[in-house]
Amino acid sequence: MSHTERFEELREIIAEVLEIEPEELTDTGDFADEYQADSLRGIEILARIDKHYKVEIPQSELPELRNLKATYEAVARHAGWQD
Amino acid sequence: MTATLHPGAGTALEFPAIRAALPQRYPLLLVDRVLDLRPGARIETVKLVSATDPCYAGVPEQPGGPAAYRYPASLLIESFGQSAALLWLHGTGTGAGTDDAVLLFVAAREYEVHGHAYPGDTVRHVVELERVIADTAFATGGSWVGDRCIATVGSLTAARRPRAALDPAAVPPPG
Fold first, then answer.
1. Are the Cβ atoms of B131 and A50 closer than 8 angstroms?
2. A24 is in which domain, residue-wise?
3. Which CATH superfamily is domain B11-53+69-163 in?
4. ipTM > 0.90?
5. Closest residue in chain A to residue B104, using alpha carbons only
């Protein structure tokens, strides 16, 4: 899978949790400020991506998962993607 | 994931132990028995559906069809959720006795209804715990009547939060 494909796949996964269309989710739009995501949504996003990508992002990194781009970077780090 | 029981593999719990682990009480305590519990992994529970359940108090004299006395999906989801909470919390020293946390039903995603339960049926829930993080649990599973699967649960989310964080009195009124 290319960087773009993975990025778009992550967009779909997160959009589903936020209950919006993938095209509504911007690369740097803040989940909390722009998509009404509360702490529970943030935890749900983390659990979803952990399950899908078979990684284990620790609770301590939750605050970093602010937007799609930042979340992608966290997953890439934990999954060892060579982008 | 199957609906069969693996005898002797895990723990069985009766009413007193269920009450010790869950904050719910009559008439909203919706787990009658734990058939099999593998802590942190999997649980099988039973909820009997009876004509004496409060949800049947208002069934009209002419019900017009079985839909009027199906066991409500909302209560099935709640019963499944309580089973997930039991799996999560049993043996962790948390329960009705600890007053400092509130157990919350957060969400159910991809909940599919495949059939229904009626008075006289025994509903069996099978729940697998997928992940617990930040005092939030994610479970999956299904509900059966005999060998009929009546519901599948893609993902159910439950959370424990400190009571003080949720107490409306702790939030100052606006203005």
1. yes
2. 3-79
3. Hotdog Thioesterase (3.10.129.10)
4. no
5. A40
